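Exercise 7. Predict the joint structure of the components listed below.
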Amino acid sequence: MTGSRQKPTIYDIAKLSGASPSTVSAALNGTWKARRIGEKTAKKIQKIATQQGYSANLQARGLRKARSGLVGMILPVHDNRFFSSMSQSFEAHARDRGLCPVIASTLRDPQEEIRTVETLISYAVDSLFITGATNPDALSEICIAANVPHIYIDLPGKLAPSVVSDNHLGAELLSRKILQTMPKLDDPLRGRAYFIGGDTDDYASARRVEAFRKTVTHESGDISGDQIIACGYAPGQATREVKALCDRLGGLPAGLFVNSLTAFEGALSYFVTLPPQAFDDCVIGCYDYDPFGAFLQFPVHMVRQNSDKLIARAYEYFDAGTTKADLIMVEPDLIPPRTIYKGRFAELG
Amino acid sequence: MTGSRQKPTIYDIAKLSGASPSTVSAALNGTWKARRIGEKTAKKIQKIATQQGYSANLQARGLRKARSGLVGMILPVHDNRFFSSMSQSFEAHARDRGLCPVIASTLRDPQEEIRTVETLISYAVDSLFITGATNPDALSEICIAANVPHIYIDLPGKLAPSVVSDNHLGAELLSRKILQTMPKLDDPLRGRAYFIGGDTDDYASARRVEAFRKTVTHESGDISGDQIIACGYAPGQATREVKALCDRLGGLPAGLFVNSLTAFEGALSYFVTLPPQAFDDCVIGCYDYDPFGAFLQFPVHMVRQNSDKLIARAYEYFDAGTTKADLIMVEPDLIPPRTIYKGRFAELG
DNA sequence: ACATTCAGCACAATCGATATTGCATAACGC
DNA sequence: GCGTTATGCAATATCGATTGTGCTGAATGT
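Solution:
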C-alpha cells in the first residue's frame, strides 16, 4: 500500500480533492484567505494533504519565488570549539526564523571559499554568513553580483557589514591579567611575558598582538621584539617554538600568552614533558576557550569569544534590513582557571 | 557596469551567443558531445558564459532532474568533538563526490528530528546520513516513503543500513586497561572499578555497560549493581554522582570508567576541588576522546571513535548501491594518556 | 428588474534548467 | 544523381510550485 510511490504533489492533491492545483497551492501554503478560497475548501484540501503525507517541493517553490529558505554559513573547520559553537547558534537562530541552515567548511583555502560561495549562491541561499575568510572582499564581490546579502563574522570585510569579537579588548584583559599575576623573577629574560601563536597577517591576531604590545609597554615600560612569536596556528609549530623559547630562557617564562587553541594544544605537547613544579612560577593565558583547557595540571586563564552573541547580532542586523558595511563589536569574556593554584600562587586563586 | 543586475540564465547566454537555450544548456553542463553540439559552438558559449559570470541555478536543475546534489546529515549537536569531526569527514567526502553537504542538528529532540528529515527531503537531498537519532525507525519510514536512501551512523536502525562503532570492543579494551592498571587497595569498596555516565536506554551506552560488566566479572569474579551509575549525559548530574560516590567510598575509587565527554566534564568539576595526590591511587578512563582531556592533572585513558572511518564506510556503502539493512562495525582506538604518571604509578607509563 | 459588487475558484504564465524529438543541411555510397 | 546516414542545432514538453488574471454565480443596491 504505502509502497515506494513518489511523493505526492499539488496536482495529486488537486485530483483527489477535485480542486485546481492553484487552489491546492493556496490552501496549503497559508495564502488561501488572501486568495479568497472558501474555508471549507481549504480545510478539506489540508485534510487530504495530511492523509497523503504531502509536503511541498522546496526546490520548486524556491525556483518560483527566487528565494530558497536556505541560509548559508561558511567557516574554516567544524572540529573546533569556537566554530562549532557558532554552528550551533547559527542553526538555532535559523530555525527560529523558519530557515534551513547550510553550513560549509572551507579549510581556509581561498579557492575552496570561492567555490563554496558560488555553490551556495547557486542554491539560491537567501543570505550568507561568512567567517574565517582569507579574502573577504573577493567573496563580497561574488555576493554583490548575485545580489545576496551577506555578513562577516569575526573578520571584518570592507564591502559588507561585519560582527567581530573585540580582539583588542580581550587581549588587553588577558595580557593585563597575566602581567598582574605573574611572579617577579630575578632573571630579566624569564621574568617577562611572551606571546606565542597566530599569524599577524590575520586580522584577529594582529589586533591581539597590538593589545599585548600596548599592555606590556604600559605595565613594564618597554617590550622587546622577541617577546612576540607569531608562529602560525599549527600545533606542531607551536610545540617547537615553545620548546625553543624555554631552552633559550632556561625554563618557562613568568608569563605566556598563547594565541589560539591549536597553538595551545601544541604547547601542551611540550608541557607534558615538564615536571609539575615547572609551572609554579609561570602564568599561562590562552586566547580562546575550551572547557577541558580550564582543567589542566596548571591554571590557565582563557578568553571566551561569545559566539552566540556574534551570531545573534548578525541576524539582528539582517532583520533590521540594513546593508551598510558597519562594524559591530562584541565583547569577549575572561574566564578564570578552574584548576586550583598551587605552590607559591595558592593565595592568588 | 557590474551593477545589481540579476544572475544570468541560459536564456541570457542564448541571446548573447545566438544559440538556443537547449544548446547552451548542453554546452555548459558537459553533455554537449553526447548531444552532438559542435565543438566551436560549445567553446564559444562557454566563453560567453564565463564572461557573464554564469553559474547554473541548482534549484532549477534539481527540480528537473529530481536530484538535488545535496547530501544531508543530521546529528544531535555541533559543539561536540565527536560529532564535529564527523561533520568534517562528512563534508570532505561529499566534496570529493561533487555533492553539497547540508548538516543539521536536532538536539536529540524526536519532533525536531522528524521535522528536519522532512525538511531535508523537501529539498530533495539525494541521500541522508543519520546519527544520534532517538527513534531511527520512525525516520526510516519517512525516508522510505520518499524513496530517499539513508544510513545510520553510530546507532543501528532496523530498516536501513548502519555503520556503528564497536562499542563493546572499545569498552572492553578500556575496562581491561583500567582493571589491569588500577591499584590493589585494601578497602573492598574503593578497590573496585566504577562506571559512570550515559543512559542504558541508549544503544551505545548499553553495549558499553555490557562490556564493562563482562570484563569486570571476568577479571574479578563478580560485579555489584552499584558499580554502574548510568546517570545520563548531563555534566551537572555527573558532578553530583561522582561526588556522592567519593563521599560514600571515602575517596576516589581505584578505577573509574567515565562514559562520554560530557559526563567527564562534569566529573572534572568535582575533581578540581580535590588535592592532586587524590589521583595517585586512581585510574581513570573515558569513553570518547578529547585532545585536552589527555593533558590533565592526572592520566586519563581515552577511547577515540574513528569518526572518519565511520563516515567513509557509510559513503562506500552508498557507492556500492546496496540498501540492505546491514550492520557494519568500525573499531575504536584506545589512546594512552599523554600526562606522565606520577607517584606510585610512575612505572606504569 | 437591472447594474454592480464580491466571493470562490479555475486557467495559464512563469521560474531556469534538462531531455526528447524533429528539421534542416552536409557527407557519403553506389 | 539520388537515396541514406551523419551532423548540428532548434523546438518543445516537463519538473512542482506561485501568482496575476478571468470567469461564474450569488448577494447587494436602487
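Discussion. Chain A touches chain B through 60 residues (CB under 8 Å).
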